[in-house]
Amino acid sequence: MFAARLVGLPIFDPQGDQVGKVRDLVVTMRTEGTQPRVLGMVAEVFGRRRIFVPMTRVTNIDSGHVYTTGLLNMRRFEQRSTETLVIGQMLDRTVTITDSGITGTVYDVAMEPARTRDWVLSRVAVREPSKGFRRRGQSHVVEWRDVTGLTRSDDRQGATHLVAALNEMRPADAASILHDLPPERRTAVALALDDERLADVLEELPDDDQVEILKGLDSERAADVLEEMSPDDAADLVRDLPPETAEILLELMEPDEAEDVRRLLSYVEDTAGAMMTPEPVILGPDATIADALAHVRNPELTPALAALVYVCRPPLETPTGKLLGVAHIQRLLREPPSTLVAGALDDSMEWLRPEASIDEVAAHLATYNLVAAPVIDENGRLLGAVTVDDLLDHMLPANWRDRARERGTGPR
């Protein structure tokens, strides 16, 4: 059973209820050539907390599921100094195949049950460096005893194969794995992610991790990553940087992107203006229902941003001309596609002002049963939209992601 294929598999209890997902394997390394013993799995349970599932609690593993006895300790997983994470720390290590002298990097590891009924790491998948115009180097799957280099630390360890695994995950899941890596490894992996993917993952990380990773990038790269983030998330991150660093990065960003971030930074923290996104779906009064539906189908929009269409006088970039009204997605779906979206506006809703507090924003969304709401200035121009996920990010305690992980901390 190869480790990379286990990651993400659902874990079920005896009643058939899913209790979590596999995130990594925990092993204890022995001497060179001796198969490491698999102690258990790192599982992510609901609430994004990571726990330890001993192999003695695993009753069966097939191609798509992991089954357990159901008796799981829900305390947070804490890696011990004698333990190694297969996905987080073993992939991309440089090893040598003893028989042939071939050197390559580890891209997967297989485990199997031993005669003692323990699980052990038994095979290693190694890829040679690419040669010439070949896209990939040759691959080899060899016995554990036939490679050297896995039991010692590797200063040359890259991140190619771990990055490939992270790219297959949802950003929140990738962020969870990145958060639990040792600091040096976390930085190496972050450097290897492309700008867009790193931006997606950064938005899901605790504040301290965001700042640490951004400081590990050169200024040009950091500015590029900020450009890929949503403006409200980028503004939140820039607020946490030293003022001189923040100004350098804003100067390096594309002017249009930097302008959005600067505008959000100009508002008092934890107000509607500070937490809004300046890029909702905006259409002119001559747009049709078909135009509106085509815009909200954009897969890059969050569900909350896709729930409302904002109809404004030109210009149609924030700050816009006068806001005429909003159209709800449910209403749009009930109207003929050829009719004007201006005929489906909700004119019963009050708008938010940029200085509105978090409590006022929460009360507004609750009163009108909304997942998003427009923010306007004194002249009725649309400045942006506050979504319910923006609100939650600001209402929850600082570093709430860390606090969620730490509930139930204690020895295994």
Automatic annotation (TrEMBL):
<dbReference type="InterPro" id="IPR011033">
    <property type="entry name" value="PRC_barrel-like_sf"/>
</dbReference>
<protein>
    <submittedName>
        <fullName>Mg/Co/Ni transporter MgtE</fullName>
    </submittedName>
</protein>
<dbReference type="InterPro" id="IPR027275">
    <property type="entry name" value="PRC-brl_dom"/>
</dbReference>
<dbReference type="InterPro" id="IPR000644">
    <property type="entry name" value="CBS_dom"/>
</dbReference>
<keyword id="KW-0129">CBS domain</keyword>
<dbReference type="Pfam" id="PF00571">
    <property type="entry name" value="CBS"/>
</dbReference>
<dbReference type="InterPro" id="IPR046342">
    <property type="entry name" value="CBS_dom_sf"/>
</dbReference>
<dbReference type="InterPro" id="IPR058838">
    <property type="entry name" value="SH3_actinomycetes"/>
</dbReference>
<dbReference type="GO" id="GO:0016020">
    <property type="term" value="C:membrane"/>
</dbReference>
<dbReference type="Pfam" id="PF26205">
    <property type="entry name" value="SH3_actinomycetes"/>
</dbReference>
<dbReference type="Pfam" id="PF03448">
    <property type="entry name" value="MgtE_N"/>
</dbReference>
<dbReference type="InterPro" id="IPR006669">
    <property type="entry name" value="MgtE_transporter"/>
</dbReference>
<dbReference type="GO" id="GO:0015095">
    <property type="term" value="F:magnesium ion transmembrane transporter activity"/>
</dbReference>
<dbReference type="InterPro" id="IPR038076">
    <property type="entry name" value="MgtE_N_sf"/>
</dbReference>
<dbReference type="InterPro" id="IPR006668">
    <property type="entry name" value="Mg_transptr_MgtE_intracell_dom"/>
</dbReference>
<feature type="domain" description="CBS">
    <location>
        <begin position="345"/>
        <end position="403"/>
    </location>
</feature>
<dbReference type="Pfam" id="PF05239">
    <property type="entry name" value="PRC"/>
</dbReference>
